[in-house]
Design brief:
Radius of gyration of chain B: 17 Å
Number of strands of chain B: 9
Shape of chain A: elongated
Number of strands of chain A: 12
Order of helices and strands of chain A: HHHEEHEEHEHEEEEEEHEHHHHHH
Largest sheet of chain B: 6 strands, mixed
Largest interface: A-B, 41 and 50 residues
Number of helices of chain A: 13
Helix content of chain B: 25-40%
Strand content of chain B: 25-35%
Order of helices and strands of chain B: EEEHEHEHHHEHEHEE
Oligomer: heterodimer
Helix content of chain A: 40-55%
Structural class of chain B: alpha/beta
Chain lengths: 385, 213
């Protein structure tokens, strides 16, 4: 050994020109990576904790949104996106109403009139039926194709009662002399639809198309959620509001079972900021880990690794742990949600990726801040002993 | 080149009196100095000041060199501490290579240099073992190899054999003193046997430096 040492003495002559620290950034990346890969037990535990936390919180948001989506589906099926305009006294111009479908945020508009006990089925004098006439925009309320001139749309309850199905033939008679323009000739059931969406009175109705001329009792407007407030405000003016006969606008479901707007519920859901919460918790966790591992940071400093090099090592370690943990947690949350519920993969992925991205951004910000902390070298080294 | 502490005081927050009072100390490259003294006398604090880890409350600690400006204390010193100051899960080779990387060389070059220095302290065959699997004496030889490979002008050793038995201490000290020819060595120790191997001995009593030999 002594021979080698003698040889070494010749090699290790101190050079004044090489005294400044020459630690390279890539050495920091290498050390950070090595510390994580070789400290497998601790690193795996940290990644698993981050993943479990992110997975739990992301999954809780996915489940919450799934519930909201189901509620929204029921809400829309029940007519939750429909506004009803009517005049306090009198009727509405059908042309004004049908023209609303050109307004931004309006999905469909139809001028509608209800004639209770308007017709009877031919040959069945006691079969009084509510007749609903509506302009063509009604088809967009139910996503129905044009039924043809002889086609009518019947509610499910009516179809069940008279055992009608699409294609069934029927004929009406005016129920009384007061009813004008009762449909004549043989008609055809073009479709069976859930007309209850238009209101309770329509749940047992027969729907016929009418021309967009003349007057109507109501104007039904199907709106996009984000334009709802603006359109509600604008409708009176668009429909010819005047002092003598005000236009009143109401939600179709305002008095029904669905009094909560799912879009608002989505915006204010309690799990909305779980990504932020997850990121904050794991960032705090990393700060604690950094404090517990301060001796390691001090050791690098005592070896001559300059402060920026030490910071870069800690950033590399933190970035690896956080990225792996958050990615794993996000994928796990999507997998659990898709396998255990009927939520679509794209929706689960969309939600989880948004929350995961926020969690990762916050966690990395925490890693950056925590990595800047400079422990007292000697005190930290003594604590290791 | 010299490390110079000139009339320094060091006070720690929360302590009523200074840990070091008016301390003067000089060590040159190629020189070995032992610092002896009872526990709490300020030995490790003086070493920390020389290594640039603790800033004196009064007085100056600096490098005296021909270059302008003179290098910083932290840039000319390396440490040999007790055996716990290693990366236990990493190999002996990696532990030594880290210090070589501070010279700005590539990782491959650092590992080659580390291999050479581990051979110098007799750990060639164990270089790939995780440090946690080495004995106390072997770990301390890893630490010595780490100090050597950094090629700093001064090695500061704080109780380098404090946790070792006598025979292991002899092996470690042989490795340490064989390695220091060009660099200056400052050793803080309680052990007179360690001190006797140094060219000069300085004592510290109640925070004051007393030159002994």
């Amino acid at each position: 050994m002594n021979t080698s040492v003698t040889s070494h003495r010749r090699q290790s002559t101190v050079s004044n020109s090489r005294l400044a620290p020459q630690w390279k950034a890539r050495a920091s990346f290498g050390e950070g990576f090595a510390n994580i890969s070789e400290g497998a037990g601790l690193a795996c535990a940290l990644v698993a904790i981050v993943a479990a936390l992110v997975c739990t919180l992301c999954a809780s948001d996915i489940f919450a949104v799934r519930s909201i989506v189901a509620d929204e589906s029921r809400y829309l099926n029940a007519g939750g996106d429909i506004l009803v305009a009517q005049r306090s006294q009198g009727t509405i111009d059908a042309k004004d109403c049908t023209a609303l479908d050109k307004v931004t945020g309006v999905r469909a508009a139809t001028a509608l009139s209800v004639i209770p006990d308007g017709v009877t089925i031919s040959g069945r004098p006691d079969s009084h039926q509510t007749l609903v006439t509506a302009t063509a925009g009604i088809l967009d309320f139910f996503d129905l194709p044009y039924p043809g001139e002889d086609g009518v749309i019947v509610s499910q309850r009516i179809a069940d009662r008279w055992k009608w199905a699409p294609g069934s033939r029927l004929q009406f008679e005016a129920a009384s002399a007061a009813v004008h323009h009762a449909p004549s000739g043989v008609l055809r059931v073009a479709a069976v639809a859930d007309l209850a969406k238009l209101g309770d009175a329509e749940s047992t109705a027969i729907l016929m198309l009418r021309a967009a001329t003349g007057q109507a009792d109501f104007c039904y407007v199907r709106v996009q959620a984000q334009y709802r407030a603006d359109i509600t405000k604008a409708l009176p003016a668009l429909l010819g509001d005047r002092d003598s006969a005000r236009i009143q606008v109401s939600d179709l479901l305002s008095q029904g079972a669905f009094t909560v707007d799912p879009a608002a519920v989505f915006d204010h859901r309690s799990t909305r900021d779980v990504g932020l919460l997850a990121g904050t918790i794991v960032a705090l966790l990393w700060a604690i880990v950094g404090w517990l591992r301060r001796g390691r940071s001090a050791l690098y400093a005592s070896l001559g690794v300059p402060y920026p090099g030490g910071v870069l090592i800690r950033w590399t370690e933190g970035a690896l742990v956080m990225t792996l943990g958050v990615l794993w947690g996000t994928v796990l949350a999507v997998t659990i949600a898709v396998r255990s519920t009927d939520i679509s993969t794209s929706l689960a992925l969309n939600l989880a990726l948004r929350q995961g991205a926020v969690a990762l951004a916050v966690a990395l910000a925490g890693v950056v801040v925590a990595g800047l902390w400079r422990p007292a070298t000697m005190a930290s080294l003594k604590e290791r002993q | 080149m010299q490390l110079v502490a000139d009339d320094i005081d060091v006070r720690y927050r929360g302590l009523p009196s200074p840990v070091l009072r008016g301390a003067n100390f000089v060590v040159s490259t190629g020189e070995s100095v032992a610092i002896l003294g009872p526990s709490g006398s300020g030995k490790s604090t003086l070493l920390s000041v020389l290594g640039g880890l603790v800033r004196p409350s009064r007085g100056t600690a600096q490098v005296r060199a021909n270059s302008t400006p003179p290098p910083r204390l932290a840039d000319v010193t390396t440490w040999i501490l007790q055996t716990t100051n290693v990366f236990p899960e990493r190999s002996a080779l990696d532990n030594v290579a880290v210090a070589a990387l501070t010279r700005g060389i590539s990782r491959a070059e650092a590992r080659a240099d580390a291999t050479e220095h581990l051979a110098l302290v007799g750990l060639s065959t164990r270089r790939h073992d995780a440090v946690r699997n080495l004995s106390g004496g072997e770990v301390q030889r890893v630490v010595i190899a780490r100090a050597m490979v950094s090629r700093r002008p001064f090695i500061l050793a704080d109780e380098p054999t404090g946790q070792l038995d006598q025979s292991t201490s002899q092996v470690v000290l042989d490795a340490l003193f064989a390695s220091v020819h060009e660099p200056g060595l400052v050793v803080v120790t309680h052990d007179p046997a360690v001190a006797s191997r140094c060219a000069r001995i300085t004592r510290i009593v109640d925070g004051e430096v007393v030159a002994a030999r």
